[in-house]
């Protein structure tokens, strides 16, 4: 059992090291953070969707934007499309599971917003349909994926692809990158003065 613990930790570290070595990921993260900060500063918002563990990521990331990451600053506009059970069940029942997020984008997204889609495989049908809907509205699309990027990769304006085929390791890397994404958006929106603020440990 101890060997399993060490093996899994080594696997997680190896995946993160591959992410660290991929300069395209770092460059893309900076680009999407700047894009998102500019959208928020102009009164627009970030919309985020994902399935399963990636749905939890969507909610987690949005909480960091709306509340805070590590320092006090003004709230940032972001919405997770994974949280309203009445909308999710009605859309699933009336239109089908593939329409869960596209229907919400049709209702909530406006030109100037940004859509972030999270899928470890890059092939979730409801995510693919949501990206198509976002493109119809004319808003930039960002994809966080793994496993080569799947069908999402060519559809998204910006793609961050974790070089792994193992779901849990992709998700672990996504979470680390999502935290950094929020931190970068904060710096673009409020300046590097945040670096000198007291870091708050959330309860």
CATH level 1 class label? Alpha Beta
The name of the CATH architecture is 3-Layer(aba) Sandwich
**Secondary-structure-derived class:** alpha/beta
How much helicity do the residues have? 55-70%
Q: How far from one another are the termini?
A: 31 Å
- Name the helix and strand elements from N-terminus to C-terminus, one letter apiece: HHEHEHHEHEHEH
How many helices? The count is 8
In the CATH hierarchy, the third-tier topology is known as Rossmann fold
Could you give the count of β-strands? 5
Overall 3D form:
globular
Which homologous superfamily in CATH is the superfamily? Glucose-6-phosphate isomerase like protein, domain 1
When the domains are counted, the total is 1
Give a short account of the largest sheet: 5 strands, parallel
Q: Beta-strand level of the residues, as a percent range?
A: 5-15%
Q: Quaternary state, please?
A: single chain
Radius of gyration: 17 Å
Q: Please list the strands of the largest sheet in the order they lie side by side.
A: 2-1-3-4-5
